[in-house]
Design a protein that fits this description.
369 residues; globular; Chorismate synthase, AroC fold; 8 helices; homotetramer; alpha+beta; five-stranded antiparallel sheet
Chain lengths: 369, 369, 369, 369
């Protein structure tokens, strides 16, 4: 583990926000996955702050440079290393944070963990910026899944921002046809989208920040993926989702609401539809015993408001041991919820890739090739 | 991964509900952990259904037999294998489930995953029974943590059952002194406890089941444990928590409520108390950047109602392809929430053990020895 | 790692020589491997000392008891746990070894490693006895390989015992048809076999011991298995082979002799034979760049003489700090070379299983099913 | 595994000989290791072909560029990524090898493994060039070991080249004081060194190549490092050593010679010297039961002659299916034995790092800090 995840595919992230570059190594990829460079660019753009009025003023282009593992446009099967150079850094903004740790941020815990040797500039390795190579990895995972015959890739949508909730409760079939007007701000209900955007701009004016809730749906994964116990689909997805900075909650299907139901309500009755076994309801979010049932796999993720805010707040001065007022300079997102959507899609695709490969290895499934 | 978890300590679970026995191998334990057999017995008893009117009529004594890795009352440092024999099985109760899969259970997904080769009896490897060896592993982890100078071990309490919520909102210091009248039914508010017990008995009479919410608190873990990204404390705990059957949600600190706050509210301001850095609030649940801050680590777990209920429900007959009425025989828990508490403590202790060992390995911390 | 090996299949060994039992968990097996219990018994017998005049007087029957992971005669795909009870122990023989460590044995290093907490009786976890569950694991791997269409399983033969060398230098096609008169003492040249047997009995009379060399051949593995670098076939086999107690050397193909050749001699020229690409010579032992070429994979293993001998030898008394004469009681093998053959076949089969599963996972190969 | 090795430290190699760059990620390093950039440069130089008349005409400077994980001259504890750009490539030299695979090389097995998607240029990921980042990783491991109080780091010396053997049989104390006149050609016996150098130049003139044997000695590792079975010191070292291209054999201590001794000869008797427990002989190469005894850990590695030679040789034309004459262009080493010495030191240091960290984690040992 550490900064490496996975068994069948191994993903190693590296980099600091203000170092020379960040990147990822994807090890144990199969040979022959055609890389769609347009898709990669599009995914990187969805996460980036460029041309994005709801995001940080630090605009990084996030151009992915592939060092190895790709030849003639396809994966070779040897480790794929990709780097992204950091270009737009202003490290002096961060000097004060060594003495005045930001509340809600990793300044103090990072110093405890790394005995003071961490690169504190821009949050160092704790920066949300490290999710950029994760989005690249997710794009590769999506291409892999497509090539293996996965019909529907995971799709993320914003359920809530700053307490403003999308009232849409799409049916299973609507979820299966999920599509959005704006993939960088994916909300089903357009009037709510406008309210959310307004709320973000107001928070930005106040030098404050907002959080939210994102839902990720994989419309019809093959049944039989996953395992009971430590390799449950839930465990794999949860491991990755809680790796994403700012995530504080995760629920599958009806989630916490399930805990107030009786078994007779919660159980999703089986029936046959168009020759396929389905369930009438989907309270269990497409997962039973840690394994996909073939119904949509649905989960919700709670994102906390960005910890770095310009607004004055109290913190401890580690030298003087006095509580002081902190006004953070730096450049930060008033709300990362829209940008985190593509990151959550990425980790979901990576989790499915693992599950799929486990099934291939067991001879329980066959690829589309 | 698979049925093995961990890097510094490796835990391998095995067993089926109605096979000869279930068990666990704990590999890579350090030598010299004194095993307190009374504690082990007490922990096993907390999970067991023996003398437990709120639990399944299947009463297994769950006597742990240690095969290896212990000598003269202490761990040797070689793999510790422990088995529990299955004694009280009635396998014929389950024959029908091959044709009539239980809604909400793993009968159908297990058959998809294992190509029909799974042991279906009593849920096989999907049975909650496999959490018994996990509780044993957790007891060993607790002894390890104690021996290393961990002051406060993780403690679980019931927040809600069947929608009945414990109104107590204990302060940080109350949480630190968490103690219960009844460790097999750990509720802070005694009137609520009685209501919950009544609700379980009523659900049992109705041949139905209830779910609930459990909170786990580790009062003051050492600061600096955990990592950013894939080895965040959240990722490790989440991986293990979602391995426990019936878990459908997990939130840290204020969890989903955090997503509706502004940053200025959500950030927990630092101050000094008794010479120690603390935060005024603990919305972040003691974790920042994936790393412990020294504040109580708090999380909530949503448990769905037991899927196996006696009450008639609709399911598909896989032979006739018709929807039929299913009345499950077998013996089941009307509510597993009380029994799951010690399981969640166990996995939390295991997660801390991993984090602690990583810190030892890095030379960032010293054991109490 | 630790006592767990593997990525696609995970093998966890446990047990001490004089504890209640030893065993293994095989995790991540695919479902549906039919278990041939006769083959398992035969393999266990090949390793056992029962009816074996060249082996230790401690005669353990080594009956394998399967606790989980098998249902209706086939693997379920959930963890397969198997245990073997220790029955014939005489632990008092070993008390002196705490003070007088045996030269050439792990008594002293084990105490250093485990801070004195190790179970010293009969060598504890260091005992060659722990290879019994490894042979069981190997038998399962052999069944798996057969079910996947592997034509030729790995076969071990004795090349030398106590300096007596088998003069046979079989051609590639003879190696492919390797078969033996006595699988418990597999020597190609019968006169040499008799000499070896005589030498073992003489060493036993002298209360001394012999070592030897074993060759393992996999006649025609599928080409394309393995990887460059850390997952080379050589690395995987070497990792497992050096896990077997008493192994001190390993060479592939012409091995150390290759180091004295020129490239023009060492390179094996390609040609076509019966429509298949082969090499004229096989100095590289069927492996190039860490990957199987389809030619026989051949390696040699050096086994040291059993460290425990009855003959008087000098050792240090750890209390008195004086050099003293040690006469080991206990019961030991005068030569483990014949018994280690089936162990080396087992680990080779396990290594191939890993490689095969990696290929399946990559979609580079298809199983015979 | 794959291209990632290790549990406590995870090393991920990447790159192809003729791609944009090669590199390594070192994950899970502790914070605070001071990086001695001079040592790194010196180690890289030892492996490089620059100013090296016995090496390939392809002269790469191998400048290491650190992208992350180092701040203010010390490791941060977050992943350390380092890349080396490929500068001196002549890819057109390799076009013919797709049709005419080189005997003794991975051209054909690589195509089988990667379904034809591999980057064939310059051997691609199979190139010995990928050992450059491994040497960098080894340099970091050496610095770590030094900082932890390891007195003597592993040292490699050439035992034989092209059948010319160094007659020196140094005593244990001479081995402990091993030092060389020329670290890029480390031979103890100077007349033999000259003969070896002459033999390499003659082989180069003949457009042929030579192999050899390297010995690696770690003079006095702390006792108690390693484990029985899968994590034996031998298994760890063997795994890494056989990852190095061209290695075909490995023996510990007296190695294959041990197999012809009797136990009474092979066992190394204990005695006390200067208050420390030592053995009179060291046939077991400092390792008993997979664990270090404190005596010098000694092993020998067989290196095959470089497969790529200019001299005409026969190979198969995969298009015409005819045997043809092949004259390899490209630029190659007439003998890689001298360059491989620092690589073998590197992997040995990495193996010790793992063992040491395991001991730290177990609380069995304390660092010098």
């Amino acid at each position: 583990m550490g900064s490496t995840w996975g068994n069948h595919i191994q993903i190693t992230l590296f980099g600091e926000s203000h170092g020379p570059g960040i990147g990822v190594v994807l090890d144990k990829l199969p040979p022959g996955i055609s890389l769609d460079m347009d898709l990669i660019e599009k995914e990187m753009y969805r996460r980036s702050a460029v041309n994005n009025p709801y995001a940080t003023p630090r605009k990084e282009k996030d151009v992915v440079e592939i060092l190895s593992g790709v030849f003639n446009g396809a994966t070779t099967g040897t480790p794929l290393a990709a780097i992204i150079k950091n270009e737009n850094t202003r490290s002096k903004d961060y000097a004060q944070l060594l003495v005045q740790p930001r509340p809600g941020h990793a300044d103090l815990t990072g110093a405890a963990r790394y005995s003071g040797f961490q690169d504190h500039r821009g949050g160092g390795h704790f920066s949300g910026r490290i999710t950029a190579p994760l989005v690249f990895a997710g794009a590769v995972a999506k291409m892999y899944l497509k090539s293996q015959g996965f019909e529907h890739l995971p799709v993320a949508r914003i359920l809530a921002i700053g307490g403003i909730e999308d009232p849409c409760e799409p049916t299973v079939s609507e979820l299966e046809n999920l599509s959005f007007r704006d993939e960088r701000f994916p909300v089903l209900h357009s009037a709510t989208e406008e309210k959310m955007k307004g709320a973000i701009l107001r928070a930005a004016e106040d030098e404050d920040s907002l959080g939210g809730v994102v839902q990720v749906v994989t419309a019809s994964p093959p049944p039989g993926l996953g395992d009971p116990f430590f390799d449950s689909v839930e465990s794999r997805i949860a491991h990755l989702v809680f790796s994403v900075p700012a995530v504080k909650g995760l629920s599958f299907g009806a989630g916490f609401k399930l805990s107030a139901m009786r078994g007779s309500q919660a159980n999703d009755p089986y029936r046959i539809q168009n020759g396929k076994i389905v369930t009438e309801t989907n309270h269990n979010g497409g997962l039973l015993g840690g394994i996909s049932s073939g119904m949509p796999v649905v989960f919700q993720v709670a994102i906390k408001p960005t910890a770095s805010i310009g607004k004055a707040q109290k913190t401890l001065n580690l030298s003087s041991k006095q509580v002081e007022t902190l006004k953070i300079k730096g450049r930060h997102d008033p709300c990362i919820v829209p940008r985190v959507c593509v990151v959550l899609e990425a980790v979901t695709a990576i989790a499915w890739m693992e599950c799929w490969m486990e099934a291939l290895k067991n001879g329980c499934i066959e690829s589309a090739d």
